[in-house]
Amino acid sequence: MSEAFGIENEVNLSNLDDDGHPKRQGTVLTASAHIITAVIGSGVLSLAWAVAQLGWIAGPIVLLVFAVITWYSSTLQADCYRNLLTGKRHYTYTQAVRSILGGTKFKFCGVAQYSIFVGVSIGYIITASISMAAIKRAFCFHREGHETGCHTENNPFIIIFGGVELILSQLPNFHKLSFLSIIAAVMSFGYSFIGIGLSIAKVAGGSHARTTLTGVVVGIDVTRAEKIWNIMTALGNMAFAYGFSMLLIEVQDTLRPNPPENLVMKKAASIGIMVTTFFYMLCGIVGYAAFGNDAPGNFLTGFGFYEPYWLVATANFFIVVHLVGAFQVYVQPLFGFVESQCAMRFPKSKIITEEHRIQLPFSGAFNVNFFRLIWRSIYVVAMTVMAMLIPFFNDILGLIGAFLFWPLTIFFPIEMYIVQAKIRRFSSTWIWLQMLSYSCLIVSILAAVASIRGMAVSVTKYKLFHSIS
């Protein structure tokens, strides 16, 4: 009997990794695919506008610079998956920061991360509502003709999207459903390819969009001050497109331990960022060629495209479906953090800790927690109201990009690498890493200031709760 138990135990252990988790089977190919599907998303929509602010020379160069910096930072972060002193794995980005840097920096990481979750919540509601309005306008243009304004209020669509998220937010672990990632990947590739295809068709059809080497022209398209502000906002939009560092350690945690995870992850990051950058170049450059200096903030809703109307509507439908799931992916960790902290602080509170089982028709039993119901509902409603107050697509993306880029993509990976690799203070490597970090900090500050300024200017010209596409 004991011999049989020993054999069974040995078999079970052979299916486990050194941390007791089921054996990881990830490879370079699967990790690259995870990175590509995680990165390509709503960030592509603003790249034509961003390139238009910079022009044919600076636009592609800046996109490449962001790609190279992100790739370099990703390689540093790959070395932080395991704690070099203990060999212990880090399963998430925040766990790595806490283990390697600890203390104040971990708290700063938490503030940055959860601030981004709030910003992304507002940004996704705005983007989805604009796309929903764009679907209605596409059918209106087809029916009434292209000379018709077909202007559509965004607020009803903001409320509809907020209502859907209000319901989905009550489903525990909704963001962990595997089919969400598949749907998100299909949708994001779908609308991106449609946008590129429509842009190519527009150029091939003889579009004579006005483009220049330096982008929008001072005195014709914008004033000198507007040109400078728009360039800084464009930097934030490009940074937003590359904001995926928080996901890399979780991707690395799917890899087999042999060969070493950091070496495999570096290869995967190189492949993933190379493919993504090529895709971004297509969206930005072909989009700029199609629209020129008049490129809309969102190249699928600015309606340089009218026909085929059904394809335009399909692309915007893909955006909405993608963002329904993506919203939950971002907010559920915030929900979980607040709820776990409250449960630790008030363990005897029945409102916070007690689950009530309710039988729903056609859906079976469902657990309801009053605190979860109230807090999550308040959060979604507040984000929906904020989206109606500040429905400014490019400025919101620029602000989120600024918050994503320096702290999470640059600062923490560099600081963790310095500790892990025991880089000596004031050595040449340390100086180079600090110069890179401070340079990126300046870029993020400029992008953040420009985006906030853009929202402040827009608010003065905007009637509250009266956003129109």
Q: Oligomeric status of the shown chains?
A: single chain
* Widest sheet, order of strands: 1-2
Which CATH top level class fits? Answer: Mainly Alpha
Ranges with pLDDT <50 over ≥5 residues? 1-11
The end-to-end span amounts to: 74 Å
Share of helix among residues?
55-70%
Largest sheet: 2 strands, antiparallel
Shape: globular
Q: Give the rounded overall mean pLDDT.
A: 83
Radius of gyration: 24 Å
Count the beta strands: 2
Written overview of the protein:
With 469 residues, the chain is an all-alpha fold. It has a single domain, classed as Up-down Bundle (Amino acid/polyamine transporter I), CATH 1.20.1740. The chain is built from 15 helices and 2 strands. The chain has helices at residues 2-14, 28-39, 47-78, 93-100, 103-144, 155-168, 178-204, 224-241, 245-252, 261-291, 309-345, 350-353, 370-389, 393-420, 428-461; strands at residues 356-360, 364-368. Strand 1 (356-360) and strand 2 (364-368) form a beta hairpin. It is globular, with a radius of gyration of 24 Å. The N and C termini lie far apart (74 Å).
